[in-house]
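A favour, since you know our structure tokens better than I do. Just paste the record in under my message, thanks.
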Amino acid sequence: MRRLLRVPAARSGADLMTAELEFENWTCPLPLRDTPTVVMGHGGGGAMSGELVEHLFLPGYGTAGAVSELADCAVVGVGSARIAFSTDSFVVKPMFFPGGSIGDLAVNGTVNDLAMAGATPLYLSAAFILQEGTALADIARIAEAMGAAARAAGVRLVTGDTKVVDNGSGDGAYINTSGIGLVADGVDIGPRRATAGDAVLISGDIGVHGVAVLSCREGLQFGTTVASDTAPLHGLVAAMLATGVDCHVLRDPTRGGVAAALNEIARTARVGIELVERDLPIPPEVSDACNLLGLDPLQVANEGKLLAFVPAERTEEVLAAMHAHPHGAGARRIGTCVGEHPGMVVARTALGGTRVVSLPIGEQLPRIC
């Protein structure tokens, strides 16, 4: 769906080429989203997901609802300890894809949510909703993948649940994982801390997971095998924190991709973010697939990458630590946090122009995590 961008009128064509863009006066009309029923876009991590939380769940919860910023992980005090707590559900289709499965995805996804708060992950729960008729051999493969991923991440699966729904009421297996971890003293990481002047870093290639899942769905092929980047990132985060640099924000850009993550950070901190398009690490196969299907790579999900906001003068120290870790070998700076156009993300193009990187409304590729 195309979105029109209205810019304040200029006096001439020359004015359009030379005038400073007045971001605050731009308007971006959205299609109507009024609907009496749940639609796929409500689960996409974009604007519709945010509206569901803000206008339905939080009012329903009332005083029992969230009392802190709405992030993928909450940090709460328990006595003298600071506990990170997160939960996530996985409904990826198909259950097995190049580079992984719903099993390791479920473990790594919750481990990474804890890591983005600077926590050391410790324990996970695992709840299964299984569809009647699903092959037990497939469930065994998923369980083995979860066990292997948990051992690799150094966490333990300590509790869980299993339910079965009628044939046709599910899709093989859905998994919910919750996790807890410990946050060390002095660590304060969250989207509210993004500050004008911060460097924006990413740990590696963009859009790989989404394209990997798409490549084996509906028989689509792109001429090369693209494997998911699913991986636990807490070791990389530990290496970054070991530099002593005050990392302001960490975020794994899963549903909605880099675009959704950066827009959420910009709106929470009331800052602007400027990306340099030529510095975005988009692999050729991801770019080709997105061009073929009319997708924006910045809105495609990742499962083994992180975004980091760090003081600009400490950028090289953090990048050096990231490059020394296997999951950060491709790390680079992709932009800057600015005081202008608060709440908006823009990208400087190779031709010297500027485009708005918008928050996805729903999800380009449903059921990818």
